[in-house]
C-alpha cells in the first residue's frame, strides 16, 4: 500500500484576555505555549503523544528550542499554529512551527528538538528504531529559522535572583514546567523592550528538571545583542537561554 | 416593546494540558480563570464589557468572590461555564457561575460581586443609574452558594513570604492580576490536600491593586477549618482570603 504524503497540521486560536500583557498584545510565553500544545495534540492524533507513549513507559522530552518573533497579535486576534516534523536522527526529532496571524502572515517561527526518553532506564530511545510510525509523518520542508544555537555559560558578573518551585509551577510529571522557565526569562527582560514589541530571537536549552520545593537561581547577564540566562538548582543547571533583539 | 426574559449564558471548554497539575486534573485557579473569562465575554456580548466601558472611562472591578469546588475535572474533560447576573444594588452587581462537568453535573459554584469604577474620579459608579441596560440581563435565580463572607485580619503568628511583582503577573491595567493572587494562595496550601482533590470553599476580597516592581508580602495562617491569607504591599493590604475544607 502506498503511503499518503505527510501534511502539516493546523490549530486555530484566538488571543484570550488572560494571555495579553499591558500592551494588549499576547505575551510571548502564552504564544509559545499554544505552539507546544499544538505539538502535543498533533503527536496525540498521530499515535505518538505522551499518553500513548506512557503505555510503553516512554515520554517526549524537549531538548532545545529556537523562537523568532516579528510581532505579537492583539487581544481577540485569531491566529493559527502550523506544525510539522521535518526530520530526525537517532537522538532527536525536529518539530517546526509557524504562527500565522489574522492576515495569514507568519508572525513567529519555532524550531524545536525532542528526545524520546525510556522512563525505566532513564535513557534516550534510538529514534531510528521507530521506523514507519514516525517516518510517514515527516514533511521534508526546510527549517523556518536557524536551529537552536550553542549557548555559553554566563560570566561571573551575572545578576542572580532566587525563586522557590511551588505547586503552580509543576507539570503532570511534578517537574517545573517548560513555559514557566520561559516566563522567568521574560520577567527579567526590560519592560520597555516588551512595550515596544521589539522583534527577538530566543534560544533555549533544557538541561535538567527541577522539582517542587527546590530553589531556582536565575542568573541574567546583559550582552551586546540582548541577554543571557542560566537557571539552576543547587545541584545542576536546568536551563540555559539567550534573548537577542533582531 | 416587551423585553425578552433574560437568560443564563454558557461557554464550552475542555481541560487543556497546560491547565492540569500533577494529579492530571485542572488546577482550581485555571478553572476560576475560565469563569472570569466567561464573565468578560458575556459582559462584552451584552454591551457592558470592559472595552465598551473603557470608551466611557469606566471599568468593572472585582470586589469579592466566593468559590466552592466539589471536584476538579480531568485533562481533556469537556466542561461548561454557566453564568448570570442575579441582581445588583447601588454599589455592587452580583454575577454567579456554575461549572458543569462532562456528565452535566455542577462541580463548582461561584458568587462574585463587582463594582463599576469611574477612572477619572476613581470613584464607584452608582449602578442604579444604568437602568435598563443592566436590568434586562438580570436572572433573578437564587445564589448557587452563600455570598462572600466577612474575613478577619490574620493574627500575629502568620507565616510570611515575599514576592516581587513582575511582568508576567500584570494585566492590561498594569495591576497584579486576579488569578495570580489566587495562584499565590494555592501555592501555599498543603500539596497533599490538592492531591486528594479535597472539596473546598474559597472566600476572597480584593482590597487594593498592586503594581509592577512592588513587593508583595504573603501571610498565611492555619486555622481550624483551613487557612487564612493576607497579601499586602508595604503600603496597604491588597487581598484577604480564606480556604476552608468542606
SSE layout and pairings?
2 copies of one chain form a homodimer.
Chain A: E1 9-14, H1 28-45, H2 50-55, E2 58-69, E3 78-88, E4 93-100, E5 106-118, E6 123-124, H3 132-135, E7 159-164, H4 178-188, H5 191-195, E8 200-206, E9 215-222, E10 226-232, E11 237-245
Antiparallel strand pairs in A: 1-3, 2-5, 2-8, 3-4, 4-5, 5-6, 7-9, 8-11, 9-10, 10-11
Helix pairs in contact in A: 1-4
Write up this protein.
Two copies of one chain form a homodimer. The first copy, chain A, is of the alpha+beta class and 246 residues long. Chain A is 18% helix and 36% strand. In chain A, strands 1, 2, 3, 4, 5, 6, 7, 8, 9, 10 and 11 form an eleven-stranded antiparallel β-sheet that branches. In chain A, β4 and β5 form a beta hairpin. In chain A, α1 packs antiparallel against α4. The longest helix of chain A is centred in the first third of the chain and has 18 residues. The termini of chain A are far apart. Chains A and B meet through α1 and α4 of A and α1 and α4 of B.
Element order of chain A: H for helix, E for strand? EHHEEEEEHEHHEEEE
Counted beta strands of chain A: 11
Spans of at least 5 consecutive residues with low confidence of chain A:
none
Radius of gyration of chain A: 18 Å
Task: Tell me what portion of residues of chain A adopts beta-strand conformation.
Answer: 35-45%
Sheet bearing the most strands of chain A, described?
11 strands, antiparallel
Cα distance spanning the termini of chain A:
47 Å
Number of helices of chain A: 5
Global outline of chain A: globular
Largest interface: A-B, 31 and 31 residues
Structural class given helices, strands, pairing of chain A?
alpha+beta
* Assembly classification: homodimer
Amino acid at each position: 500500500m502506498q503511503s499518503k504524503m505527510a501534511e502539516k497540521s493546523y490549530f486555530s486560536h484566538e488571543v484570550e484576555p488572560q494571555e495579553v500583557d499591558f500592551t494588549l498584545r499576547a505575551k510571548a510565553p502564552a504564544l509559545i505555549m499554544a505552539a507546544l500544545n499544538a505539538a502535543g495534540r498533533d503527536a496525540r492524533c498521530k499515535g505518538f503523544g505522551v499518553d500513548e507513549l506512557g503505555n510503553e513507559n516512554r515520554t517526549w522530552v524537549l531538548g532545545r528550542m529556537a523562537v523568532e518573533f516579528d510581532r505579537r497579535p492583539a487581544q481577540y486576534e485569531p491566529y493559527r499554529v502550523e506544525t510539522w516534523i521535518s526530520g530526525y536522527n537517532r537522538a532527536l526529532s525536529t518539530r517546526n512551527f509557524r504562527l500565522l496571524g489574522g492576515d495569514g502572515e507568519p508572525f513567529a517561527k519555532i524550531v524545536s528538538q525532542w528526545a524520546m526518553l525510556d522512563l525505566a532506564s532513564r535513557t534516550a530511545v534510538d529514534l531510528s528504531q521507530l521506523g514507519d510510525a514516525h517516518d510517514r509523518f515527516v514533511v521534508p520542508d526546510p527549517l523556518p529559522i536557524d536551529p537552536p544555537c550553542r549557548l555559553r555559560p554566563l560570566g561571573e558578573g551575572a545578576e542572580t535572583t532566587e525563586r522557590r518551585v511551588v505547586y503552580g509551577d509543576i507539570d503532570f510529571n511534578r517537574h517545573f514546567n517548560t513555559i514557566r522557565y520561559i516566563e522567568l526569562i521574560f520577567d527579567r527582560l526590560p519592560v520597555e523592550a516588551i512595550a515596544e514589541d521589539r522583534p527577538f530571537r530566543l534560544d533555549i536549552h533544557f538541561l535538567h528538571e527541577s522539582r517542587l520545593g527546590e530553589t531556582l537561581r536565575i542568573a541574567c547577564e546583559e550582552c551586546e545583542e540582548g541577554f543571557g540566562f542560566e537557571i539552576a538548582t543547587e545541584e545542576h543547571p536546568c536551563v540555559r537561554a539567550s534573548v537577542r533583539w533582531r
